[in-house]
């Protein structure tokens, strides 16, 4: 019986030797190379097609900046990105942080560093997605509270308790109830006046 790989990885690097080293280290650590690209122009499509757990991007690519290409992947929330570079410095670190890069691997690759870097990147990415999701849910709840306050003349605390009680009674998450309130408000708001 075939077991699933530890992670599925897309490699974006124009140097064949670097890609070969990464492939070998990924496979040795129980991972699978799900796709490869050698140019920025092909990186996003390689990630979209492969749907990997993580992508490893070289900083310097023949048609542009690997950090900018990594930023595009991160913005789409496709997967976490690890930069693979032989150069470090404050400017690169700041650009990588701004781009949403989750970890670094230094060239030449030391295979023992690969698994911790990929595991860390995936964990950080999942944590960031969870925080983003909770923030979005919080915004929905706040908007629903505002609707209840306006509709029924409630104070904020009363509106919150109504949402919470409805969530408990229906055994649904509070954000789900809040979305229903907002949906009903938009439907009521769209009804013609009589």
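-> sequence recovered:
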């Amino acid at each position: 019986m075939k077991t699933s790989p530890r992670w599925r990885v897309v490699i974006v690097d124009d140097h064949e030797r670097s890609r070969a080293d990464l492939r070998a280290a990924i496979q040795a650590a129980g991972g699978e190379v799900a796709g490869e690209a050698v140019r920025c122009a092909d990186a996003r499509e390689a990630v979209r097609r492969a749907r990997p757990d993580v992508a490893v991007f070289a900083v310097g690519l023949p048609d542009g900046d690997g950090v900018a290409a990594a930023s595009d992947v991160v913005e789409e929330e496709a997967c976490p990105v690890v930069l693979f570079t032989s150069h470090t410095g404050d400017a690169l670190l700041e650009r990588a942080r701004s781009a949403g890069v989750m970890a670094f691997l230094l060239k030449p690759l030391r295979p023992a560093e690969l698994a911790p870097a990929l595991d860390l990147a995936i964990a950080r990415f999942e944590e960031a997605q969870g925080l983003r999701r909770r923030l979005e849910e919080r915004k929905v709840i706040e908007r629903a509270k505002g609707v209840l306050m306006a509709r029924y003349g409630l104070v904020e605390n009363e509106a919150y308790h109504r949402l919470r009680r409805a969530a408990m009674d229906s055994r649904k998450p509070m954000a789900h109830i809040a979305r229903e309130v907002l949906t009903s408000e938009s439907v009521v708001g769209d009804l013609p006046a009589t």
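The two ends are 67 Å apart (CA to CA).
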